[in-house]
Design a protein that fits this description.
Blueprint: H1 7-11, H2 17-29, E1 41-49, E2 55-62, E3 76-80, H3 81-88, H4 95-104, H5 118-123, E4 128-132, H6 135-141, H7 146-154, E5 158-161, H8 168-178, E6 188-191, E7 195-200, H9 203-224, H10 239-253, E8 258-262, H11 265-271, H12 276-279, H13 290-293, E9 298-299, H14 308-326, E10 340-343, E11 347-352, H15 355-376, H16 386-393, H17 396-404, E12 415-419, H18 424-435, E13 439-444, H19 449-453, E14 458-462, H20 468-482, E15 487-490, H21 506-531, E16 538-542, H22 555-575, E17 581-587, H23 598-608, H24 612-616, H25 627-638, E18 649-652
Bound molecules: zinc ion (ZN).
Length: 660
């Protein structure tokens, strides 16, 4: 473990204790082997002024919801030191009362709630206190001889604290253990199965001690652990099996999830271990991971015809039993779905309602499988007993968070594909799907789509819809990235130059059929196998008012769109038994698209002898129809509102007398 301390960067903090606290907290946060995703916490003792101008001794403690890697000064909660020390003296203190009392002792009521380890920080009599969940240290303590090994590595000057549930109980235990001891003889504390504390009166010394202690543990592990197995051959891709796994896991939790399949050498190597089903189900690296990963992984059937549903059923049954074995009265049963899976010899699959949630699970999984393999060479991987892990998973503070969280947006965890997504109605649909919590693969022939859609929740794919193989690959790309497919908003289309039937050039006719009709059938051929495995799967077809009310000069367009509408009606019949809904939208007079430049609009308005405003609102409702209106309806059709509707045709046109 290298120190990242830099004198020049530190000098920029001046002698402001909080600025230095922010600086070294970020140094700790930059090293994932020390802290992962909001793990670990830090503090500094200094003075602060309350709203009346009175000065107090204050502990700035990392606030909950902040990550050490990115923390800023407002991420630290200023809590009165005397109040925290008084709390340490209490015999009993419920954790929710502790949180309330700590909030009441803050100098700034708008600061975030301090870490649950605030009292522990207060009782350590040094200005800077650093706390991490370093991989190497927790790995060593997760072995049968772990405690002895820690004493052998560190000797007398590092105090060892047996595992106690974080929160008031831990603060109290450490206080009882240390109040009579001489802190001058202590270089740090190891909390078994939990992490490390270091401290000093200056920021650099506390940080450097952390690096020093963790380095010793890393050297100990490196001298003993075998290198993890390498796999020379990566498994072949099976995206339908991946989508089936995703569906079984989501169904167990009662909500759509994304699935991230890791096929890197470390994940595949772990998944191919003969004893993997035992190793992956003994428990987490540290108990706080249970909130993100559950206590155990799902172990799938690795055979080619393995049934994910059965494996998930078994997982849910054993989760239920674990709950019943450990639960006390009044606990809210959490969703029993696994958060990650071992797919024997194929890697691992991590689940989450958003790409970020899945990635956090994947990061923790990467560190966990490394820790497991290191400890197997040091006497065996032994996680904490399940009752300790359960206590953290069903902690009163976590249950309270659950009660506070509202319903997620309607399309959370849904995976969508939108064609013609670079502009107009297609782009509006893609953005609306994301706003409602979904992730979107956007296809367009315009190369700008790649940059336009590039984000966590978006993937832009340049693709000519008349190229069958390119389109099939685009569908696979979306499934590979997110784990499946639930929604297709099929919007792509092109309006050929107006011409009476006898004058339509054959190439223009053929092109309209290719883009406006045939490409859709080809796309669905690639999508349907995945839609059958989707969550409340839905296809929304953007057709045209030209279907119910054709106009002269637009035969090539109207005929293709009428064919597309008929294709969708047949699809509704064919796919209904599989639960796939297919509905049709007929937009008209949508003028905020690339097709309608101000010049074209003015020319059309002049042709009819009306103003542009009047031209845009020439419908029954006298209202302007925007791309966003079409997107709103398309997303409603893709969501729960239309869950009982298929084969329907709905107009978004402000009302058309020819159709009505
Ligand atoms: Zn901790």
């Amino acid at each position: 473990m290298q120190s990242l301390w830099n004198d020049r960067e530190a000098a920029a903090c001046g002698d402001d204790p909080l600025a230095l606290r922010v600086y070294t907290s970020r140094l700790l946060g930059r090293e994932p082997d020390l802290v992962l995703h909001s793990g670990g916490n830090t503090s500094v003792k200094t003075t602060g002024t309350d709203l009346f101008g009175n000065t107090h001794r204050v502990v700035y403690v990392k606030g909950s919801g902040w990550d050490l890697e990115t923390i800023e000064a407002p991420g630290f909660a200023p809590v009165r030191l005397d109040a925290l020390l008084a709390m340490a003296e209490l015999e009993q203190f419920d954790d929710s009362d502790m949180v309330r009392a700590q909030r009441a002792a803050m100098l700034d009521p708008n600061a975030p709630s301090p870490s649950v380890e605030a009292i522990l920080h207060a009782t350590i009599p040094f200005d800077y206190v650093d706390h991490t969940h370093a991989d190497a240290v927790v790995s060593i303590t997760n072995t049968p001889g772990g405690e002895d090994a820690i004493r052998e590595i560190y000797g007398e000057r590092v105090w060892v604290v047996p595992y106690v549930m974080p929160g008031f109980a831990l603060a109290q235990a450490v206080y009882a253990m240390t109040r009579e001891r001489d802190w001058a003889e202590c270089d740090g504390m190891i909390l078994l199965n939990h992490g490390v504390f270091t401290f000093a009166d200056d920021a650099k010394a506390a940080y450097e001690k952390m690096i020093e202690l963790v380095s010793k543990a890393e050297e100990y592990v490196a001298a003993r652990a075998d290198p993890p197995p390498k796999c020379s051959e990566l498994p072949s891709e099976d995206l339908e099996a991946l989508a089936a796994i995703r569906r079984s896991v989501g169904a167990a939790g009662g909500e759509a999830v994304l699935a991230q399949w890791d096929r890197d050498p470390a994940s595949v190597g772990f998944s191919a271990l003969p004893e993997v089903s035992d190793l992956a189900t003994r428990g987490p690296l540290t108990p706080d991971h249970v909130i993100r990963t559950k206590r155990t992984a799902l172990v799938l059937d690795g055979r080619p015809d393995g049934d994910p549903e059965r494996a998930v059923e078994q997982y849910v049954t054993s989760y239920r039993e674990y709950f019943e074995r450990n639960a006390t009265e009044g606990l809210t049963y959490l969703d029993p779905a696994p958060r990650w899976a071992v797919w024997p010899a194929r890697g691992t699959v991590c689940f989450g309602r958003s790409p970020k949630e899945a990635r956090v699970v994947a990061d923790i999984k990467d560190h966990t499988i490394r820790g497991i393999q290191a400890t197997e060479a040091m006497g065996g991987w032994r996680a904490l007993p399940e009752k300790d892990v359960f206590e953290v998973e069903y902690w009163v503070l976590e249950q309270a968070k659950l009660a506070r969280s509202g319903a997620p947006p309607a399309l959370t965890g849904k995976i969508a594909l939108v064609t013609g997504a670079a502009s107009g109605i297609g782009l509006a649909c893609a953005l609306e799907l994301q706003r409602l919590g979904g992730v979107v693969g956007g296809l367009d022939v315009n190369p700008e789509i790649v940059e336009l859609m590039d984000s966590d929740a978006g993937l832009g794919i340049e693709c000519d819809v008349t190229d069958d193989e390119a389109m099939a690959e685009a569908v696979r790309t979306v499934v590979r990235r997110y784990g499946g497919l639930d929604v297709v908003i099929d919007n792509v289309g092109a309006f050929p130059a107006s011409a009476p039937i006898e004058e339509i050039p054959p190439a223009a006719w053929d092109q309209s059929m290719a883009v406006n009709l045939t490409s859709h059938q080809r796309l669905w051929q690639s999508c349907i196998p995945f839609l059958r495995l989707g969550f409340d799967p839905a296809v929304v077809v953007i057709a045209s008012k030209n279907v119910p009310a054709p106009g002269p000069g637009a035969a090539a367009y109207s005929v293709a769109k009428a064919g597309l509408t008929q294709l969708a009606r047949v699809a509704a019949l064919e796919l209904g038994a599989a639960g796939v809904r297919v509905n049709i939208l007929h937009p008209d007079k949508v003028y905020d698209t690339g097709l309608w430049t101000p010049e074209v609009l003015e020319a059309r308005a002049a042709h009819y002898g009306v103003s542009v405003e009047e031209y845009k609102t020439r419908n029954v409702l006298r209202t302007e129809v925007r791309s966003q209106d079409v997107a709103d309806l398309a997303c409603a059709m893709a969501g729960p509102l239309f869950s009982k509707t298929t084969g329907a045709q709905v107009a978004v046109d402000g009302g058309d007398i020819r159709v009505i």
